[in-house]
Amino acid sequence: MIRRLIIKDYMAHENTVLELAPGVTVLTGPNNTGKSAVVEAIRSLAQNPVPHHVIRHGAGQAMVRAELDSGEIVEWVRSRGSTVYHLYRNGSDLRGSEGEGEIFAKFGRTPPQEVREVLRLDPVETETGCIDIHIGNQRYPVFLIDQTGSQAAGFFAASTEAEYLLRMQQALKIRTDRAKGRRKELVQECEELEGALRALVPLDALEEEVSRAEQAFDTVQALQRSIPVLDEWIRVAEELEGSRVRKALTCVLLRGLEHPPDPLETETLERLLQDAATTAAQLALFLELERTTGTLLPPPSTAETEQLDLLTGAMEKSVASLRHYSLQEETLGVLTSPPQLLEVADLERVQDEMKRGEGLLSAAKEEGAALEALIEPPGTMDTHVLGALVFRMESILKDWERCRLERERLDALQAPGDLHGLHALDLLVLAMEETTAQLERVGREGRLLGGLRSAPEPLANTPLEDLIGQLERTRQARDSVEDASRKVSRMLALKRDEVATTLKTAGLCPLCGHALDMQHFLEAGHGR
Q: Which numeric CATH code is attached to 2-122?
């Protein structure tokens, strides 16, 4: 029903707003005041008649707007060359970003179907033609009196909706046939869904297993995060143990040492020896240079003597240096030769190997103790069955969604009018109600399934496999280190015997003059 009517620039109306009453609204007034123009404005809005002079003089277009009690707004705009409809649904709140709503243009003489469905002012179709029961003609004020009997009968038959009921019955028959076929499909789908639901009975047990697997995975991840920290602690412990062993060995060696003898004054002698070695090297260089230049031909005469002067000055400096070094050699010639140093490279190498072997042995012991404290990693579970179950659940949810949409389409069907002799149709309605009940039951089961959380993705076993491989490699490395440690211990024992034998034959230490034995030789900082 029209609640408000707005007319702008239409015939005699410049800007007219009519607030219509909920019941009947009567327009009264003298002639030529625009009453008929209001009726024609409604006719233009509902039927879009052939263009005639409806645009007010001096205006560019005419507009008729009807606001309905259901919230829709229909607007008809007639300009010089075209007609446009604007449809605003549910009031102005749902208009477009520019407030234009739905626009209909170039639709021909008949108004758009959307507009006609909203206004509901179409003429009534009868067997003899269409009769406009909403908008009367000013030239035919008496309704149906001047029509023939067949026209009146056709109108009253249409008004009793007999023809509409016949068409509705035919349409209902077609929809009933379709519903029967669809019912068979739905029954089959329901049976399949029930079978699928029976297959989902062990879901609770699987959920517990998944929960335990998640807890195990969290434990493994926590252990993996603690591995770098443990490696760092192991490294620090190895360094501390190596330092402790070195300090203990140093303490053991220092306990048996006597006070060293007073060192002789050798700094001046060392300085003189260094100067003598440097002088001898320079003298040999100059002698080699003299032999090399002795075979050269005299240089050609040149006018430039700057380079020659520089060379002469350098030679004079070299001769002076030679004289100085010769004098220094004569001075040092009266000195006795320093004592001969024994070869100690083998002893140093043996000492380094012994220290390295002790460090490896200590590290191997620490690593073995750390590995023994580790627990075996948890076993992995087969997730293929869980993946297949998740896939089946997704398929069931899709089937349930399809059933829900079909049920909504069935619910949208309008109930037919009262007809006689439709017992079979009543039975069909009962069958459809049973089908609807089954669909609701399936919907409830689908909602229960929808509440289940999705199964977790199968975890990759790569970190566990890497950890197991690392543990296996660590065990192999520990065994290798233990074998190497045993070999080093045997080698150390042999080297100790060789060193003891060598020290006995050497006698005194060539560096400090002390009697050589094992403790004195392995003293930390010895020979510095």
A: 3.40.50.300
